[in-house]
Structures are given as C-alpha cells and as structure tokens.
From TrEMBL:
Spans annotated as Disordered: 144-170
InterPro entries for the chain: DUF3180, MFS_trans_sf
Domain of life where this protein originates: Bacteria
Protein species of origin: Galactobacter caseinivorans
TM ranges: 36-60, 72-96, 116-135
Pfam families on file: DUF3180 (PF11377)
Protein's UniProt name: DUF3180 domain-containing protein
Compositional bias segments (type: Basic and acidic residues): 148-159
UniProtKB keywords: Membrane, Transmembrane, Transmembrane helix
C-alpha cells in the first residue's frame, strides 16, 4: 500500500482553497449563505478521529506485544485505509474552509461568527490530516527477518540453493 504523501495532500488542499474561495465569493454575490459546515459536522469528524486513533493503537499494540488473539490482517488494512482516507478528507476539508475564510476575511474582516466557524473547521481538517499520518505510522509493519520476507516475495537468499525457503548446500 502506498504511504501518504504530503505533497499530494498539500496539492489537494490548495485546490480546495481555490474552489472554496471562488464558490464562497459566488455565494456572497448571489446573496446565499456562506458555504461552511456546522459545528455538528466538525464534532462528528472529531469523534471519528478518536475512533481511528483507538483502532490504530489496537493495531500497534497487537503487532508490538504478544496478544492473546492476533489481529486479522484484513482489519489492520482497513484501519490503514480509513486513516489514509481521513487524511485526504482532512486536506479537502481544511482547504475548502480556508478558501471560505480567505473570502470572508478579505470581504469584511475577521470576527464574524462565520469566520470563527470556518477557522474551527480549518483546525478540524488539520487534526484529520495529522490523525491520518499518525495512524498510518501506528499501522506500519516492521520488516521481518530475511527468511520470512524472502519467502513471501518468492526470492532466494544467497545461502539458499533450492526452492525459496528451503536451505540448500553451497
């Protein structure tokens, strides 16, 4: 699985800033409400972030200690995919609300309820991105010994003569 890339997340956030700014500007010109999410949405995302961290810790504890019951590899991958998805959602979330905040501040200064809400949403997006990276690190599987890694990859080590995983004479 490909690890998260900060550059891709930054590019996504930058694109979301541009889209959020333009659509917020259009909404203002049309007399529509500012396109920001409510605090309930932010609260929901933060509850999900706490759940992701706890799932990441579960994977981490399972792989670093002798657990009575091993974690399913599929469950560990699901936690990792959820964490990476959260990072992408967080980058989009923070970018969108940063664009809206940019438009609000440039139009009337900082201090309105919408600007504070937008600023909180930007912070929530940052939290999601950080949680994505942290949980990804918690789910990282350390390299195994040479025999196990080579056997899984189907490669022979220099001291192996026969089939992968079978010790051969030189």
């Amino acid at each position: 699985m490909t690890p998260l890339r900060g550059a891709a997340l930054a590019l996504l956030a930058t694109a979301a800033v541009a889209v959020g700014w333009v659509l917020s500007l259009l909404a203002e010109r049309q007399g529509w409400a500012t396109p920001i999410m409510s605090w309930v949405s932010l609260l929901t995302l933060m509850v999900l972030a706490v759940g992701m961290v706890s799932a990441g810790l579960w994977v981490y504890r399972t792989r670093t200690r002798k657990a009575r019951r091993a974690i399913s590899p599929l469950a560990a991958v699901r936690v990792l995919v959820l964490a990476q998805s959260a990072a992408y959602v967080g980058a989009t979330w923070l970018g969108w609300h940063a664009g809206v905040l940019l438009q609000l501040v440039s139009g009337g200064g900082f201090g309105s309820a919408n600007s504070w809400t937008s600023l909180l949403q930007v912070g929530g997006g940052v939290v999601l991105v950080v949680v994505g990276f942290v949980v990804q690190a918690l789910c990282k599987i350390p390299p195994t010994d040479g025999d196990g890694a080579d056997r899984q990859a189907g490669k022979k080590r220099p001291e192996q003569g026969g089939a992968p995983g079978v010790q051969g004479a030189r």
